[in-house]
Amino acid sequence: ELADWQRAVRAQFPILTGTDEAYLDSAATAQKPQVVLDAVQRYLTGENANAGRGTYRWANRTTALLHRCRERVGDLIDDPDPERSGVHLVGGTTEALRRVALDWLVDTLADGDEIVVPAADHLANVIPWQEARDAAARRGVTVRLVEMPYEPSGDYDVAALAPLVGERTRLVAVTHVHHVYGVDMNVHRIRRLVGDDVVICLDAAQSVGHLPVSVTDLDVDFLAFSGHKAMALPGIGVLWARNRRGPRYEHRGWPGSPHTVGAVSLAAAVDWFEATDVARIARWTVALGARLTDGLSRLRDVRVLGCQDSLTLDSTVQRRHGPVTFRHPGISAADLGFVLADHGLMVRANAHCQGPAGERENSVRVSLHAYNTVEEVDRLLDVLARLDTALTTPSHH
Ligand code: PMP
């Protein structure tokens, strides 16, 4: 029954119909369902205008669509208090995290305050904090980039983090699902460690649309994600802020015209996720990822990367949502990328935008979403198995 559901899901992605190529790079950007494309087309051909300045119908309608987008995003992430919290439409995850680092931090923190950021996360969740360092230092705020190891389970190593969190810690910036390992990193434990008064800023770029994401349940204060990874257009993203500890943006506002079409696409994507059922997407991609991980680990020369070399894959397989990354000692990741592309398999080869503590260069990332199939995964495994044999069979001279 999950398989029937999945066939119907896949059929909604026009870019995937009528092609033999397998798109396995959804952690980079996701494909768009027909309803999102339709909404964009309808808007641009029917009511395109700028927002917030209008005396006429299209402009008012555009303003309403922006409002609806924020509401729909609030629903998707289970905002407990839409009246008081803010869904800010920004360019993407990186911009959202920059807003927190460069605006909120500098506006809000002062003398002796500290923030803690693990340096093995996505660079988008490292660089903004590095950029904020000087401005923060001028206000007496310390930015601590921590080369924080992960536990073999893929969780943050809370024991290693504990000594770094002190009385003056005001913010911890963490990631929900890791973009290389695919593991749901169990950020509940971070909240338990830091207590109620520390602001948690969550990079949810790889989790929104992949599994149910609830800011209420996760108990975070900021949440950032990108529309383009959540089946909407590029150039739109979200910074959600719990108002009680959030940025004071109401009286500042965002200058410039909003990305109206992006907001339309994002609202349509949220509708699509709701209709499709994110919990089912999670079940599908976890199962598919398990099949992939299992198949890869049977290949003699392939090594699946975990958060540590000792990662026990079995223990995390139910918490892996999309990305699976591996290395082949006999062939460089770049070469492997070309070989796979020759077989119509689109993967991400080489570096993966990981922070200074990450050592995951020269690897290949396969990342799955709702539209990927068992056949695609098996095809990839088959190509790798043949490569394994070709590389290890001695040639006769
Ligand atoms: N964080 C994570 C975990 C990501 O995977 C990505 C994109 N690969 C980003 C942040 C950055 O997203 P964007 O480029 O859309 O700003």
From TrEMBL:
> Per the record, a Pfam family?
Aminotran_5
Q: Which UniProt keywords apply?
A: Lyase, Pyridoxal phosphate
Q: Which reaction does it catalyse?
A: (sulfur carrier)-H + L-cysteine = (sulfur carrier)-SH + L-alanine
Q: Which cofactor does it need?
A: pyridoxal 5'-phosphate
**Top-rank taxon:** Bacteria
Gene3D superfamilies assigned to the protein according to its UniProt record, in alphabetical order? Aspartate Aminotransferase, domain 1, Type I PLP-dependent aspartate aminotransferase-like (Major domain)
Q: What positions does the domain Aminotransferase class V occupy?
A: 23-380
- Coiled-coil positions: none
Gene Ontology terms for molecular function: cysteine desulfurase activity; lyase activity
Annotated family: Belongs to the class-V pyridoxal-phosphate-dependent aminotransferase family. Csd subfamily.
> Could you tell me what this protein is called?
Cysteine desulfurase / selenocysteine lyase
